[in-house]
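Re: export button greyed out
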Amino acid sequence: MATATALPTGFTAAVLRVNGDEYPVVFPTHHTLLEVLREQCGLTGTKHGCELGECGACAVRVDGEAVLSCLKLAVEVRDSEVETVEGLQDGNELHPLQRAFADFGAAQCGYCTPGILMVANALLDRNDDPEDAEIYEALSGNLCRCTGYHRIVTAVRWAGAMARGDDWRPPEEDFHGADSQAPHAERSG
Amino acid sequence: MAANPKVEAVGRDLRSGEEYRLIGTAFRRVDGRAKVTGRTQFADDLDFPRMAYVKLVRSTVPHARIRNIDLSAALAMDGVLGTLVGAELPDKFGILPVSEDEHALAVDTVRFVGDPVAAVAAVSEDIAHEAALAVKVEYELLPSISSFDEALRTPEPQMHDYADDGNIHKKVSLKFGDVEEGFEEADMILEDTCYFEGNTHLAMEQHSAVGVPEDAGRVTVYSSTQTPHYVHRALTKVLGLPASRIRVVACSNGGGFGGKSDPFNHEMVVAKLALKLGRPCKVTLTREEVFYCHRGRHPVLMHLKTGFKEDGSITSQHLRTALDGGAFGSYGVASTYYTGALQTTTYRIPNYWFEGARAFTNKPPCGPKRGHGTPQPRFAFEVHLDKAAHHLGIDPAELRLRNLQPPDSVTANWLRIGLIELRECIEAVVRGSGWKERYGKLPEGRGLGLACGAYLCGAGLPIYWNHMPQSGVQIKLDRSGCVAVFCGETEIGQGSDSVLAAIVAEVLGIELEDIRLCVGDTDLTPVDLGSYSSRVTMMVGHAAMQAAERARDIIARAVAAQLRVSETELVFADRRVFPAGDPDDGLDFSAAVVAAEARYGTLGTTGSYIPPRAPGRYRGAGVGPSPTYSYSAAVVEVEVDPQTGVYDCRHVWMAHDIGQAINPVLALGQIEGSIYMGLGEAMMEEQVFRRLPKKLSAALVHKMPSLLEYKSPGFHDMPGITSYMIESRDERAPMGAKEVGQGPLLPIMPAVVNAIFDAVGVRVDQVPATPELILKGLEAKARGRPARVGPTRFPRVDYGTPVEVPTPEQGGDGRARHDPKHRGLRSASGTMKDRDEALKERRSATLTTA
Ligand code: FES
Ligand code: FES
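Workaround output, generated via the alternate export path:
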């Protein structure tokens, strides 16, 4: 690590640990983790929709916790393990969350997806069989403008099942539509 | 391909009822892996060596002349590389040729808070930001207009001198049939005034563009755009360069919804700065700036008058609309027509008078948002029908069924309607929701509402007049067995890449993995007009099918010769080409391509699509036609707290007439996304403005240009959804597939307010239907006054002399009665007659050959 005196004022040098890799970087000290990940580390998988903590698109994990990288200064994570969407897969194998999102239409434009995947990943690590209400709660800070959210919630459940080795899968009507001849069934709303 | 003999029966006839192999299955979208691994490159993900960062200086006042722009302080800052002002790009642009009224940067006048005035480029975004703040602009304030009414009252000064009348940008009056006589025949005449508030797309991705200088004075612009071809045209005009020296690449869009379908000032700016500085230049808008780009839903005030017979049949309708357009034309002329054009597509309206007007106001320009101009009058109509059903004592579902527009018909305003499955849609949601047992019978506070809608499967005409294909596809095949497909289409999340790949794979009997796509690149791909008007499946699909069928024909000829069988016996399936009677005697697909390459040389085919000509010949007939229409019906169940007016949507049943789902998971995703967006518009979303107090400049500012304050539904707001896809393949559509991206939004807003009425007996004639409004209605009801909230007056607008067009039933020919000899419009590429002849021989004559 370079000494502080070798740096122009207002810059910080650090070695960030992201997805287990080391990134020696120099960045303006006031820059957020979001900016440093995207601009210095070249990890553009993490997105932004507001840079004000309002949309969740920038969520990453810091020491396991889901955090909004637009609200976190990069200097704050110098001693932490950061995880981003780029580190989710195992080798060339997709993570169950990634498989479920890709196969179930939980990513349309895919712009909100990295943030949602990271928050869901933190949730499943705590509890691999969450109730829908817990998924809503965990993802309540993430906006998605494309999907209408249901597919995201169900994909998280599906991924949890895959991770547990349970063969639960989303109901058939989510793949092919409901039977238009079927009569009314009471629903919980 | 003109020289190729037509091989009719090769493979399976994909237009018949036969089962498809890939189409209709829930395959993983072709860009799915990239999207879940963070590999999809959106415009802001691009980085180039020596790239400069650009910031726009935006107007802080709503309407003013620019006295002076002082760039000196900005230019003196370390790291600032250059600046740009309007005088350096004096030529105007705009999406519609009739309203090219935008400058890349304001030249002498600013017209809304947020209108760009200057640009600065610097070595970092931070410095560019600081430098933009250091630019001093002096303004001479002009009176500003905040609403349609104010525009009507303030004809001077004109915001744009091309406006139809003062600050009324566009006026339309189209009268079909004998409207007055229709009203005389009616047993009941109903009149309603309704309001639809403006709202915005709020795509999660902020707009971004990068200009890159290339060799020989050329420039490339990478952008988050839904319409690279139109951006290309605008850049040509503004930069004053030949189109061949400009390349536009549409990156995957992080959501569009219509908000990225105008050519934008920031795209012009980065292209010019790249050429000026000799460096790549990037601009990424902040979320606040995205609200200023806008082009979202027009606020529309509507007055609807309809005559009904006792049995519920409609005798006549008169619709008046007043649109608040914002500061520029954008798509506004089309939006104005669209507030009337599709009104006739669902129910039979024998006589119809549509009057529409759009005002210029000092706010960010409105434009096309999902449903473009159609959701507002659809809202008014479906609420109106709910009331009519009550007055007539007819069930609302039944009233609609009695009025259905017949299939294969031409409407009073000369739209040719194809297959309609609206009856099946209504019946499905009626069954699923338990409508017959539950409507009108749920406990106080709970209610059901029903509404329908119809939408285009692609606008029939391109945005600028021409007779060229609206979509083109090129296919390159070689001995590797890999099939490369080139098309100008733009993936905005809706799945257009998957539609393109799946259609080609289906025809050639190969897998999605065998296909490589190159899309949305004006240098490399044939023109496709873009991702708007729900045109992609229809038009790209047709072009892809044609190109793939031509490739299949070439391969079939070679294989037939090699195997000494007849071409007509060959089947393309499972990555093989084989005689139907002897599957073992075939070739692998790659071996089949080798046979063709050896015999005919390098292989390539093209396909194109031009929609059929619509029957209307009157001025204005260009807006509304489509090769076919999609239909939707919805029932929404709500629960309203009568103490507070707060309500919840509990469940939505939605049936959509889709023809054929290319991929049911993606199609259901479009339906669910439409329901979500419709609920946002029905319940909470509004792009609204306020005037700052006099002592603070009195500027007209956006009330809430942030994601937090602009309320949109979150995870918790979503009801349960039951979606039905009514599949009955439409022969006008490729593989029978109609649109699904926009139509299902239309019934949601009226269904919600109809359900509120069923729940608590309050009519909310405007959206968003907020708890405050419902409470007002409940209070009125408690005091014995009419339980109705919404606008109470409609302004007096002079819409001009109506253009009178006899209807098909009256024996009209599609022309207006007193039309001064309608001479065929000409364009550089030929006349309507040339186009018709070309269309007749669509499979050979007009098209470039392989
Ligand atoms: S970019 Fe961080 S919350 Fe929106
Ligand atoms: S998939 Fe587009 S914003 Fe969520």
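The first strand of chain B starts at residue 52 and ends at 58. The button fix ships in the next patch.
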